[in-house]
Amino acid sequence: MAQAQQLNFLHKLHAELSVRSADYRKLVVDTKWHTFKTSYANIKAETLKEFSKRGIKPTASQLKELDDAAQKAYSSILAGVKVLKSDPQVDVDRKSTYLTAKRLRLVFLTYGERVKKVYPAQLDPSITFDRIKGIYKEAMQVYFKDLQVITDNAIRKKKKNKKSGKLNKETTVGKFFHLGHLDTMGVVETQLRDALSNTFASIPLEDEGNITNMLEQHGIDLSFQRTDSKDMMVVKIESASDNMSRGGKAGWNKKNLLKALRDAMEKFDPMTMSGSDTPKQRKLKQAEKKLLDPFQQIKKKNVKVKSEKNVLKKSSSKKQTLRKKVNASKGSQKIKVGKIAAVKSPKRKETASPASSPLHMMVAINKKLPQVVAQNMQSPALQYQTGRFAASVRVTDVVTTPKGYPSVGYTYDKFPYQTFEVGYEQGDPQRDPRKLINQSIREIAAELAIGRFFTRRV
Description:
- By secondary structure, the protein is of the alpha+beta class.
- Helix content is 44%, strand content 10%.
- It has helices at residues 2-17, 21-27, 40-54, 60-85, 128-150, 187-200, 208-217, 240-267, 279-296, 358-376, 388-392, 414-417, 433-447; strands at 34-39, 90-92, 98-99, 103-110, 177-181, 233-239, 394-400, 406-411, 454-457.
- Strands 1, 2, 3, 4, 5 and 6 form a six-stranded mixed beta sheet that branches. It has a three-stranded mixed beta sheet with strand order 7-8-9, with helices on one face.
- Helix 1 (2-17) packs antiparallel against helix 6.
- The two termini are 36 Å apart.
């Protein structure tokens, strides 16, 4: 029943999002590939941004010293990254990684057993995010001390000392710099995107439209979910104030969403939810049938039964009645029916086909895509081994071209499989992942009777 599916959807989405962000980071985010980006210019820019937040205005000579200190800090981080690349428990995507004298990008994943932490802040080398912290922590501590010297200890704590009533000198680099995720690509946004994907995958395709309508009806805002197609966490060194502000906003959005879902579950009324015939719709149809059946069963040839169409108006403050006359006559015999309640049966909505909306099409393809890709992984294409590649393939969006055709955007775990795309290090037309995925999507589309469309790797 559609109403049951809608209520189950709300419960499942609420359960997915009820997982603490810290636990979600540990169980999911920390196992993903990470991109660490920084540069001499980035370090300097984030420093000036934090200065501005704290009301610190460096002089021209201080800016020159700051410039030299930022370059020294970057050089120290660069040296740490070079050491990390040679670690046997680190998998680096060398095609996407670059290290220069001015900027760097490290794309990598760490392996190994999780360590039992002695204290909460202890870094775990088997966690990719912690590995990045380990690279920059020492360099940024030295840089922070240099900043205090350059500004004559102008960097102060944000809260006054209870005894003296003054702002003491800041001594913790973590209060000035953070390692933060790019905007809209943080842990909370990623958790919502994954939660929606998992929840939609658990419901029948024909209920997709009813689900989206139900969410809109309850005013549930999902706009802050992560919308990019990458299954990767991108982090950089940034102003602590900026990171905390963005993180606080994301946390607030999640808190409000959980409350909206709880309210929707408490107020859920199966009598009014759209989908299969609701109990209210069924009772209206039963009343209409009970009224008309006696007249339809009169078998005399010259007895005519005339029924005017029932018109059910939108509800108003006045009580509505339907004036309905049914004349059955033979000679002078007449039968009259008086006033009854309006009982028009609303037309049942037709089930939308997968091609009728981008969301339906995306969900329909994604339900079958990993399995079809796995079946098609045969020589000379990429061959099935661990199942990791097939499981990573998914449609991320469906847009309409200027000529009105669907354009299906898809992605897959580019690290390390993108190397087989033509133009990359091991590029091969037969083993190109795009060819395999395109073939699989078109096989599914044929089963779903989807007409002409295009595919693109995003």
